[in-house]
């Protein structure tokens, strides 16, 4: 079970850093947002940036560039159709997160295949949303450090396990078979590795709204980009995301994903200093 004192030790802490620059805090490439589905990747990008990633680049449909730069002028944009530039960006980034709003058409499949082909073993690959559906349909080898963030329905597509069959033992068995770190999202999210499992007891019905998973994807990507230990980064991000949601829910009927993203710097500062 994840505890606040553990998470405070796993969160990035900059107070004593000297002579650093943006590249010392990781580079995140987010891929998604096909035409008409830009909101998902914009929410993921905002969470990645607000969680402290040094550089955030978004590969999305060009129709979303104006919205992206209006919301996040700090982010860089790459056309989703530009295969050469996406290949170049993959090589530059610490974490590649793909899936929010990506779509399932042939163009999306081409991007999916490109990413799986180009990602190297020293990089972290995060697959969410549409990328998980494509993973269930494509025969590909996953890189050594792959994070999967399914909800119960997506997990069923990947494993064949119905929600009532998604037991602790079965989930760990599939995490081992896939060779991935699995964040199985729910009212109490569970994180599985081939060796262990972790329970996040934080969460609230106020977070049950569209885009919450996209926000989590960006949060995981941004924090993992700053952590040498990817598992600790994932655990910290999952806890922090729901911790903020619970805190905001004390005065709100519903918590928007963008509110969580905007709150990340303040809560990261508070929690990261507790163990110092």
Describe this structure in words.
- The protein is of the alpha/beta class and 276 residues long.
- Helices cover 46% and strands 13% of the residues.
- The protein contains eleven helices and nine strands.
- Strands 3-2-1-4-5-6-7-8-9 form a nine-stranded mixed beta sheet, sandwiched between helices.
- Strand 2 (55-60), helix 3 (65-71) and strand 3 (76-79) form a beta-alpha-beta unit.
- Helix 1 crosses helix 10 (230-249), helix 4 runs parallel beside helix 5 and helix 6 (130-137) packs parallel to helix 7 (152-159).
- It is globular, with a radius of gyration of 17 Å.
What share of the residues lie within helices?
40-55%
Order of helices and strands: HEHEHEHEHEHEHHEEEHHH
Taking all Cα atoms into account, the compactness measure Rg is 17 Å
| Count of individual helical segments | 11
Could you describe the largest sheet, including whether it forms a barrel? 9 strands, mixed
Oligomeric form: single chain
Mean pLDDT: 96
Residue stretches low in confidence (pLDDT < 50, at least 5 long) are none
Sheet-strand content, in percent, reads 5-15%
Number of strands: 9
Widest sheet: strand ordering: 3-2-1-4-5-6-7-8-9
Q: Please report the distance between the alpha carbons of the first and last residues.
A: 22 Å
Shape estimate: globular
SS-based class = alpha/beta
């Amino acid at each position: 079970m994840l505890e606040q004192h553990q998470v405070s030790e796993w969160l990035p802490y900059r107070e004593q850093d000297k002579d650093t620059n943006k590249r010392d805090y990781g580079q995140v490439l987010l891929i998604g947002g096909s035409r008409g589905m830009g909101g998902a990747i914009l929410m993921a990008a905002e969470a990645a940036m607000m969680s402290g990633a040094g550089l955030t680049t978004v590969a999305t449909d060009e129709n979303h560039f104006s919205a992206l730069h209006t919301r996040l002028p700090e982010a860089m944009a790459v056309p989703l159709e530009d295969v050469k530039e996406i290949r170049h960006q993959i090589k530059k980034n610490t974490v590649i997160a793909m899936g929010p709003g990506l779509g399932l058409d042939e163009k999306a499949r081409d991007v999916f295949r490109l990413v799986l082909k180009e990602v190297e073993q020293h990089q972290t690959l995060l697959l969410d949303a549409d990328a998980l559906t494509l993973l269930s349909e494509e025969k590909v080898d996953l890189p050594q450090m792959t994070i999967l963030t399914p909800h119960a329905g997506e997990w069923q597509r990947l494993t064949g396990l119905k929600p009532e069959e998604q037991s602790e033992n079965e989930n760990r068995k599939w995490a081992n078979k896939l060779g991935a770190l699995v964040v199985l999202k729910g009212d109490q999210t569970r994180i599985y590795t081939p060796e262990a499992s972790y329970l996040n007891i934080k969460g609230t019905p106020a977070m049950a709204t569209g885009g919450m998973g996209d926000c989590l994807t960006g949060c995981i990507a941004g924090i993992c980009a700053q952590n040498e230990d990817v598992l600790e980064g994932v655990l910290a991000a999952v806890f922090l995301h729901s911790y903020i949601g619970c805190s905001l829910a004390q005065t709100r009927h519903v918590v928007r994903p963008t509110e969580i993203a905007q709150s990340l710097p303040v809560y990261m500062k508070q929690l990261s200093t507790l163990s110092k």
